[in-house]
Amino acid sequence: MIEVVSCLHVAxxxxxxxxxxxxxxxxxxxxRIDRDLKYPGAWYQIGDCQIHLIEDIDYSANDRIDLxxxxxxxxxxxxxxDLDIIKQQLLAANCIVKMSNSGRAALFTQDPxxxxxxxxxxx
Length: 123
Known about the structure:
- By secondary structure, this protein is α/β, with parallel strands linked by helices.
- A hairpin with a 2-residue loop joins strand 3 and strand 4 (about 50-55).
- The chain has a four-stranded mixed sheet with strand order 1-4-3-2, with helices on one face. Strands 5-8-7-6 form a four-stranded mixed sheet, with helices on one face.
- It is globular.
- The chain has two helices and eight strands.
- The protein folds into two domains: about 10-55, Roll (2,3-Dihydroxybiphenyl 1,2-Dioxygenase, domain 1); about 75-120, Roll (2,3-Dihydroxybiphenyl 1,2-Dioxygenase, domain 1).
- The protein starts with 8 loop residues before the first strand and ends with a strand.
């Protein structure tokens, strides 16, 4: 049997790299790291894991994901320390915010391309 020991990165497509960088850096406050690849993208470090944003100008998840209908969609989950502050910051940035349907201390939002992001209270 294969033994998986860690998550190294998650790759997400975005249609407009500059717009995505503004969201992941300024709204979510993630730390961008250097990358040396031959295609447009941006890398972010979160603990031992990375998010790789890869530009594809024809991409949009907005046609497939509707947070008003369900939060059971493909997504990345990030741990946060204060869900109430995060919710207020997302609303101030005009982001969609949907509390988890399960009743857990978690909310869902979307990046500008419609990629769903879960933010869950940890600790």
